[in-house]
Every structure is written in C-alpha cells, then in structure tokens.
Design goal:
Number of helices: 3
Shape: elongated
Strand content: 5-15%
Strand order of the largest sheet: 1-2
Structural class: alpha+beta
Radius of gyration: 29 Å
Number of strands: 4
CATH topology of the domain at 29-92 and 118-184: Helix Hairpins
Length: 199
C-alpha cells in the first residue's frame, strides 16, 4: 500500500545552494596559525575562538528549530498513512463492520460502522471537505507524497547542519589548543613579550 513512498525523491536544491534552508557553510581550517594571524591583522579584531563559538551556537539554534519540525513531520506521515488505511478499509468493506474507538485515555468502545461512501478530510486552511472514497484516496496519496518530500528536505538540511557543527567543533578545538600552545611558548624564558608606550 505504501510502496510508492519509497520512490519519492527530494525536490531539487535551489540553484547554487547545498541546502533548502540557508545554512552558512563551515570550512575546515587547514592552517590554524595563518587563520589566527589573519584575524589579528583585521582593523576590528575579533577573537577567533569567540567567532567560532558563536557560529557553533547559531548552528545549535537552527538545529533546535529543524529537529522538532522533522519529528512532527514523521508523526504527520504516520497519521496520514493511518487515514489511507482507513479509506482502503471503507472501500473494501461494503457491509457494516465493527471497530474499536478510543473515547478517553485507556477507555475504548466497540462501535458498528455502516457502509461508508464518503469521508471528510481537513485540507489546508483548516477547511473540512467531503470526498468520495476514490477521490479521498487520491488526495491522501498526493498529500503523503508532499509530506515525504518535506521530510526529506528536513533530513537533508539536518544532515548538512550536523556536518557543519562537527567541522566547527573541530576548528574550535584546534584553535583552543593553538592558543594554549602559544601561551605556554610565550611564557618560556627568553620569549617574554614586552610592550612600551609613551604617555
């Protein structure tokens, strides 16, 4: 029944982009010494470690937005699949049948369902619309396709985001170690730097 979902592909990426949501790429810093020196030469100096830490924090904030959306979409897909199963059952059961419905938490009741010719579906805009069973089936299948595509979009962006976070975290570690090593080196005898100025 759901084999068609495996054939659904994610939509094309926007031209020139690696993601659907804008996510700033994180490049691996090959030469830490040059990277720090370049930052120190800028007119408005920003501590490289602070810049990288802020970047990592921004990635984390974006992840906090994408991850719940991804999880919610998974739930929506399962609910829509259940709707499709029910429509199929209505199509197959042309006589009255019994089913169990949940009234409250852990409270169920057996009810008899007469033959069903149409169902009501909530469409975008929170509008309730009645469909004959065959049209309802087509609509829900189309809806599932769109949901799966959106899920793949979230999945793609989350995977890319995690890669950028890993790269940034590695850069932070390497810059931190470089700063520690440079600090120790400057404290060795003969390497003490002095500053002088005029009042």
């Amino acid at each position: 029944m759901f084999a068609f979902m495996e054939q659904i592909e994610k939509p094309p990426l926007p031209a020139g982009s690696k993601t659907y949501t804008f996510i700033e790429p994180a490049d691996f810093i090959e030469d830490i010494e040059s990277y720090v020196a370049k930052a120190e030469r800028k007119p408005f100096f920003e501590e490289p470690l602070c810049v990288l830490t802020e970047k990592y924090s921004n990635y984390g904030e974006l992840a906090l937005k994408l991850e719940p959306s991804y999880a919610e979409q998974q739930i929506n897909i399962e609910m829509t699949k259940a709707n499709l199963k029910l429509i199929k059952k209505f199509q197959e059961e042309k006589i009255e049948f019994m089913t169990r419905v949940q009234l409250f938490n852990k409270v169920y009741k057996d009810v008899f369902v007469p033959p069903v010719e149409s169902v009501t579906i909530v469409i975008p805009g929170n509008v309730h619309m009645q469909f004959p069973l065959d049209e309802a089936e087509k609509y829900v299948i189309k809806q599932l396709g769109q949901m799966v595509q959106q899920l793949k979009i979230y999945e793609h962006d989350l995977n890319y985001l995690r890669d950028q976070m890993s790269t940034t975290n590695l850069n932070i570690t390497r810059v931190y170690k470089y700063n520690i090593a440079r600090s120790k080196s400057s404290q060795k005898p003969g390497n003490v730097s002095t500053t002088s100025g005029q009042n």
